[in-house]
Amino acid sequence: QHLTEHQLRDGIMQKAHRGRPLSREQKVRNGRLAKVRYVVEQSFGTLHRKFRYARATYFGLTKVRAQSHLKAMCVNLLKAANRLSVPVAA
Question: Where does the record locate the signal sequence feature (predicted)?
């Protein structure tokens, strides 16, 4: 209901259970979701690996949100530098 109200789609992968394997359509859907998930997980991996973003350093929603946005900007700048093939020491 919440998804339809906000014009969103379900992006959760489906899981097989004992005695009930996934159908061909479910496997195809999971494969498509895996491609998107891979791209998103790479960004979070970069945040964790290069910018030590395992948990928030500050208290308070405003400060934590600001820290998250700044680190996300850093990831985007690093991606841009890599696309331009500029050596970056990060």
Answer: none
| pLDDT tens figures, 26-67 | 999 999 999 999 999 999 999 999 988 888 889 999 999 999
Q: If you write DSSP's letter for every residue of 48-81 in order, what string do you get?
A: HHHH--SS-SSSSHHHHHHHHHHHHHHHHHHHHH
Amino acid of residue 77: L
**Quick count: other Cβ atoms within 10 Å of Cβ 18?**
5
In sequence order, which residues have a C-beta less than 8 Å from that of residue 85 and are 6 or more positions away? none
Domain boundaries, the chain: 2-83
Distance CA(56)–CA(62), nearest Å, equals 11
In this prediction the pTM is 0.65
17 SS3 class: strand
